[in-house]
């Protein structure tokens, strides 16, 4: 028996999707068949090949997938090849020794269970046949729908792992301008080789275990002292314990007031999988016992001067291309031990407005000249911090204005959103005397710049760690301290004097 309705839904055009334009700034809505739309889990391909992608909504994702939409990562071929003569340098020897010395805990959790489904043969080859070389460059190509594009250094990987009959060779690119290796790229190659279809979060776990000191890992319960013979055991039961206690210092205030969507607990995995817009159907409260959070004895282990790590964090931000933002009313776990009720959201991007970054308005909110002026003020602060402090792509910045709700800002897949209503209610009135006499000193300027500096740090930290746990706190501390000098330099010269005209020629 053939269901005629299902046949029609499979073969006819009814799916709403969005396709990036060539400049990667705007997207065009399309109505296509389910088999012509893709589910975005490989955003680099979206930027290079511009496939038609579904809106960033979990309910639509499930619906489209049911009728034939494919995940983008299953349709993309990624090819990495080294170029130039491989050299065994002191740097390559040190990296090989680092990996070999940490193999016994690199791919397992604190209970010695594999972080994902292990490829046994590949793991054994890595243990016995690993070589590391330095090369001139790594050529990175993405192939999608028979179209192959080569990525530049900015978007390509800095290393490649290649296997031959007698050798597992890791090649990394020479870069005289960078003193430290990109451990995230290295972890990505190791993860793809050792595991079968690993979650992306595994990459960051392995990157952290390569870059952190043994003392730091030991204090966090990583089994650094176990021998290789006793590790990698089959898990009897895997689960995700959620944090029940939050660490509220030294940035507790920002942590408490800035909302970030937290991930749901998976019942069959020890890895947390991101859920960009959860619905009320799959929310639940945890009953796991709270783990003990151990404070480090030496804050130097945070490595606040690791600019490579911070640069990678900012690079993960990206533009939000959909012209609408819709989510179901739901309850989310906040601070991993309390809950916040979020109202439903249905926001649409304003068109033809002279604001330097996109503004999304909740339905039934009327655009006014005063609102647009305040949006320009907030955009002036945010783009100034992005350009002069974080070297952050301003296309990742967005404004939104809701009627009610607790969120000052949030991060959705690297797109950063800042609440204009909060700026209006907290800062706008205090700012008016300064705007009338912009050359006169006023402490409100320092307050606004410092506040949004911390808010941006908070949201950037969520590029690496979705949950408000100890790893998130350490990342937030790294960002805040690492960019503090640039912020102070920016603050000395900052003024609202030209906020109305600076970006008038730009449109989104």
UniProtKB/TrEMBL annotation:
<dbReference type="Pfam" id="PF12449">
    <property type="entry name" value="DUF3684"/>
</dbReference>
<feature type="region of interest" description="Disordered">
    <location>
        <begin position="267"/>
        <end position="288"/>
    </location>
</feature>
<dbReference type="InterPro" id="IPR022155">
    <property type="entry name" value="DUF3684"/>
</dbReference>
<protein>
    <submittedName>
        <fullName>Uncharacterized protein</fullName>
    </submittedName>
</protein>
